[in-house]
Design goal:
Chain lengths: ~500, ~180
C-alpha cells in the first residue's frame, strides 16, 4: 500500500462524507430547527437507522476493530463473550431509555439529581475523557499508517514516520471539516455511508485472508477458533477477561456520545429510544463484534501478527494477493477513523456548550436571535478545532512524557469517564439522594484510577494499569452508594375535614 | 521576497480565508449589508408585535401609525423600519421569511464549496509531501511556491470561482428584494 492509496482514499471518503452532510443539511427539519440545536442534536428528530448508525460508528472505530480483531486472534471464539458484554450494556441502558430521553444530556441528569457542581465536574471529566479518546485514536491511526507505509520497500523508516503523521493529521482535519459542515444530522447520514463502506471493505479483506489462510499448511480453523487453555491464560487470563467484561458492561452508561445520539432520536412513540438501543446492541454484536472476531481468527493464516499491527498486517497481506485490496484497505482504515472521530468531536462540542459553558440555559434560549445563534455556532466550531489540536498533540506529548505505548495508554483513556459510573447509576435508578456533593465521588474515583495507572506503568506490577478502569468503576460505585442515602418515602397526605 | 515565497504566501492566505469562511460564514453572512438589514427589520417587527390581524395589504407606514410606532419602538429601533414604511405588510413579511430561509440555504451551499476547497488543499499537500525527498516544511513551502497549481489546486481554484460567483449573485438578489 502506498501514500497515493491513502491520500485518494482520504479524498474520496471525505468528499462523500461532506456531500452527504450537505444533503442532510437541506432536510426540512434541519432548516426549521435553530442553528445550534440543529447542529448539536439534529433538532431531536433522527430516525432509528440514523441513531443506530451513530451508535454503531462509535463502536466501530479503528481502535474497536483493532480490539475485536486482537481478541479474536488471542482467544478465538471466546472473544464473542467479551463482545456480547458490549452489546449487553446497550440492553441494560435501554431499561432507562425513557429517563435518558427526558434529560438534555448525561450531565444534565447528574445536575438535576446532585446539583450544578456535580454537573460541571462530570462534564469536565467527560470532555477530558473524550479528548483522550480522540488523541488515542489519532495515535493508533498514525501507528497503523506507519506499519503500512514502513513495510513499503520504497519508504525509509523516518520518511514513513513523517508521512504517516501527516496523513493521520490530514484524516483528522478532513473529519473535522465535514463535522463542522453538517453537525449531528450530517454525521448521521455520513456515518450510514461510512459504516456500509467499512463493512464491505472488512468483508472483502476477510474473504481474501480466508483464501490466504486456506492455502497455508499451518492454519487450523479449529485451533484458531478454540485456542488451548494455556493459550487463553497467556493471552488474556481470567483477570484480563474480568476487566474487559466490566469495562464493556459499564462503557455505554458513561459515554456522553451515546447519550447524545439517544437524545437526538425522534420520540414519536414512548418506547422509541428503548427500541433504538436494543436494535443498536444487536447490530453492534454483529458489526464489529462477530466480523472483527472472524478477522482475528483468519489472521492465524499469516505470520508476524502482534497486538499493535494486526490491522496493518491484514491490510498488507490482502494487498499482496490483489493490488485492488490496497485501496479497499485504505478506505477501511480512513472510514473507521473518521466515523469514530466525527461523533467524538460533536460529543465534545455538545458537552462544552450544554454542560460547561451554558449549564443554566436551554438550547432554545441560546437561539433567541439568528445572529446570537450563529455567534455561538462559530465559537463551537472554533472550539472543535482547538479540541482536535489539543487532543492529537496533547496525547502524543503525554505518551512521550509518560513513556507508555499506545496500548498501555488505553487505561488512561477510560479512567475519567468510568469515574462517573456510580453517580450515573444512582441517578438513573432515582432511588437515592446525595448526602454530600457527588462530585467528591467522581474526583476520588478518577484520582484512584490515575494512581493505579501510574503504579502499573511506572511501578512494580503492570496488572495495576490493566485493572485501573475496573478499580475506577468500582470505587465510583462504592463512593456513590456511601455518599448517598435512600430517598425518603413521600409523607402520607393527611385528609382533614 | 521571491516569486515562490509570494505564491506560497498567497496560497496560505487563501487557505486561511477558506477556513474562516467554513467556520464562520453563518455569522459573517448575518453581518453583510443586505442580510443585516433583513435581520434587523425582522427583529424590529417582532419587537413591535406588528403581526396583529390588520390584513396583508396594509402599508407598513399606516400600520405603524395605528400602533403608535413612536411610542412602541425605542429610537434605536426606528431606522431599520423607516425605509420600508411604503411596503405592504404582506409583501414585507414574505420577503423576510423567504429571505431568511435563503440566507440559511446559501450559507450551507457556500460552506460546502469552502469544504471542497479545504479537502483538495489538504490532499494536495499530502501528495506534494510524497514527492519531497527529504521532507521538510521549508521544502514544502518552496514546492508550493514553485508549482502553485497542481491538478487538485486547480480544482480548488474552480471551487473558489464558484464560491465567489454564488456569493455575489445571492447578495445582489437579497439587495434587490429589499430595494424600496
Amino acid at each position: 500500500m502506498g501514500i497515493n492509496h491513502l491520500a485518494y482514499a482520504l479524498l474520496g471518503v471525505a468528499l462523500l462524507a461532506g456531500l452527504l452532510s450537505r444533503v442532510a443539511s437541506r432536510n426540512k427539519e434541519a432548516t426549521q430547527a435553530g442553528p445550534v440545536s440543529s447542529y448539536l442534536l439534529a433538532g431531536g428528530s433522527l430516525g432509528r437507522v440514523s441513531v443506530l448508525s451513530l451508535l454503531m460508528s462509535s463502536s466501530f472505530g479503528l481502535n474497536s476493530l483493532f480490539y475485536a480483531a486482537w481478541l479474536g486472534y488471542s482467544i478465538g471464539i471466546w472473544a464473542l463473550l467479551v463482545q456480547a458484554a458490549w452489546s449487553v450494556s446497550f440492553f441494560l441502558l435501554a431499561k432507562y431509555a425513557g429517563r435518558i430521553r427526558s434529560h438534555k444530556s448525561m450531565h444534565h441528569l447528574l445536575g438535576s439529581d446532585f446539583g450544578p457542581v456535580t454537573r460541571v465536574v462530570a462534564g469536565l471529566c467527560s470532555l477530558i475523557g473524550m479528548m483522550y479518546l480522540i488523541g488515542w485514536e489519532v495515535e493508533i491511526t498514525r501507528l497503523t499508517f506507519d506499519n503500512v507505509l514502513g513495510a513499503d520497500a520504497v519508504a525509509s523508516d523516518n520518511r514513513a514516520a513523517t508521512i504517516s503523521g501527516v496523513i493521520a493529521a490530514g484524516t483528522v482535519a478532513a473529519c473535522l471539516l465535514y463535522t463542522v459542515l453538517g453537525g449531528l444530522r450530517g454525521n448521521a447520514l455520513a456515518d450510514k455511508a461510512l459504516n456500509m463502506a467499512k463493512l464491505l471493505c472488512v468483508l472483502a479483506i476477510i474473504f481474501v485472508l480466508c483464501i490466504v489462510a486456506n492455502s497455508s499448511p499451518e492454519f487450523s480453523l479449529a485451533s484458531a477458533l478454540f485456542p488451548s487453555r494455556n493459550a487463553l491464560m497467556i493471552n488474556m487470563g481470567l483477570f484480563g477477561f474480568a476487566t474487559n467484561i466490566v469495562f464493556n458492561l459499564a462503557w455505554q452508561f458513561v459515554d456522553a456520545s451515546s447519550w447524545q445520539s439517544i437524545i437526538a432520536g425522534r420520540q414519536a412513540q414512548e418506547n422509541d429510544a428503548r427500541k433504538n438501543l436494543i436494535a443498536s446492541g444487536l447490530a453492534i454484536f454483529v458489526i464489529p463484534g462477530i466480523i472483527g472476531t472472524v478477522l482475528g481468527v483468519v489472521a492465524h493464516g499469516f505470520s508476524d501478527v502482534t497486538g499493535d499491527n494486526i490491522i496493518a498486517r491484514a491490510s498488507l497481506v490482502a494487498t499482496s494477493i490483489s493490488p485492488i485490496m490496497a485501496i479497499v484497505a485504505a478506505i477501511m482504515i480512513v472510514a473507521c477513523v473518521m466515523s469514530l472521530l466525527d461523533g467524538m468531536f460533536l460529543a465534545c462540542a455538545f458537552t462544552l456548550v450544554v454542560d460547561i459553558v451554558y449549564p443554566k440555559r436551554s438550547l432554545e434560549s441560546l437561539e433567541d436571535t439568528p445572529l446570537r445563534a450563529e455567534f455561538i455556532l462559530v465559537w463551537t466550531r472554533v472550539a472543535l478545532v482547538a479540541i482536535a489540536l489539543v487532543s492529537a498533540l496533547g496525547v502524543h506529548w503525554l505518551m512521550e512524557l509518560l513513556q507508555v505505548s499506545v496500548f498501555q495508554f488505553v487505561y488512561v483513556v477510560i479512567i475519567t469517564q468510568l469515574g462517573l459510573l456510580g453517580p450515573i447509576l444512582i441517578g438513573l435508578k432515582g432511588s437515592r439522594v446525595p448526602r454530600v456533593s457527588m462530585s467528591i465521588a467522581i474526583v476520588l474515583a478518577v484520582t484512584v484510577g490515575f494512581a493505579c495507572a501510574w503504579q502499573g506503568t511506572h511501578g512494580w506490577n503492570p496488572h495495576w494499569s490493566d485493572a485501573a478502569g475496573t478499580i475506577t468503576a468500582f470505587v465510583s460505585v462504592v463512593l456513590a452508594l456511601v455518599l448517598s442515602r435512600k430517598r425518603p418515602l413521600p409523607l402520607p397526605l393527611e385528609i382533614t375535614i | 521576497m521571491t516569486k515562490a515565497d509570494f505564491n506560497s504566501l498567497l496560497v496560505a492566505v487563501v487557505f486561511l480565508i477558506d477556513l474562516v469562511l467554513l467556520l464562520g460564514l453563518g455569522y459573517i453572512a448575518r453581518k453583510l449589508g443586505p442580510v443585516k438589514r433583513l435581520t434587523l427589520v425582522r427583529e424590529t417587527l417582532w419587537d413591535a408585535k406588528l403581526d396583529v390581524p390588520l390584513g396583508p395589504n396594509e402599508f407598513l407606514g399606516v400600520m405603524c401609525n395605528r400602533l403608535l410606532y413612536d411610542l412602541l419602538l425605542p429610537t434605536r429601533r426606528r431606522p431599520p423600519l423607516k425605509s420600508f414604511l411604503g411596503f405592504q405588510v404582506g409583501r414585507l413579511l414574505a420577503i423576510l421569511y423567504t429571505g431568511d430561509a435563503a440566507v440559511v440555504k446559501i450559507v450551507r451551499e457556500l460552506q460546502f464549496y469552502a469544504f471542497v476547497m479545504a479537502i483538495l488543499f489538504i490532499v494536495g499537500i499530502i501528495l506534494r509531501i510524497q514527492q519531497l525527498e527529504p521532507f521538510s516544511f521549508p521544502a514544502l513551502w518552496q514546492d508550493i511556491g514553485a508549482h502553485p497549481l497542481h491538478v487538485l489546486d486547480q480544482l480548488a481554484l474552480a471551487a473558489i470561482g464558484l464560491f465567489s460567483f454564488r456569493l455575489v449573485s445571492e447578495l445582489s438578489r437579497l439587495n434587490d428584494l429589499l430595494k424600496t
